[in-house]
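Worked example 3 (structure in, sequence out).
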């Protein structure tokens, strides 16, 4: 079996890794599965918030168009979001966020902003950073997000000093 190579911090050096203990590995996979489950919910509430900010409301057809999915897919997810207490649907009006939905959207936007700023600070183009942040934002821990925030703040301070 091939040995896994683990970065040492120096791009020119790597060392074979030992197998991670089972409990640690289980927790890693559990966290990843949980992140995947919440990713879709967060994407929906974030998009709904953006549409409400832009258009005053979010309509199912617009959500489907922007997510690139069929309207029945959106309808199914909206039922789930409503049962989770994140949205309210009003007949002939559209979709609106509850206070809980607004808070989740705010937190999702903030994570996205931090990850995108971090990627830009690394020299990634703004367009690529925006696209990549859309996936990464759902999979970083609070500890990692805080490190990104500090790094971005330090990079901004360094850029300001120049």
């Amino acid at each position: 079996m091939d040995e896994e190579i683990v970065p040492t911090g120096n791009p020119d050096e790597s060392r074979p890794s030992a197998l991670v203990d089972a409990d640690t590995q289980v927790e890693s996979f559990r966290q990843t599965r949980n992140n995947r489950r919440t990713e879709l919910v967060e994407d929906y509430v974030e998009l709904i918030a953006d549409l409400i900010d832009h258009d005053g409301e979010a309509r199912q057809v617009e959500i489907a168009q922007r997510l690139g999915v069929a309207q029945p897919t959106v309808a199914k997810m909206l039922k789930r979001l409503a049962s989770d207490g994140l949205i309210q649907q009003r007949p002939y009006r559209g979709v609106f966020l509850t206070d809980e939905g607004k808070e989740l959207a705010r937190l999702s936007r903030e994570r996205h902003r931090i990850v995108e700023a971090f990627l830009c600070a690394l020299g990634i183009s703004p367009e690529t950073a925006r696209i990549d942040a859309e996936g990464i934002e759902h999979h970083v821990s609070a500890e990692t997000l805080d490190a990104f925030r500090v790094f971005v703040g330090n990079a901004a301070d360094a850029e300001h000093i120049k």
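Notes: The first strand starts at residue 5 and ends at 7. The mean pLDDT is 84.
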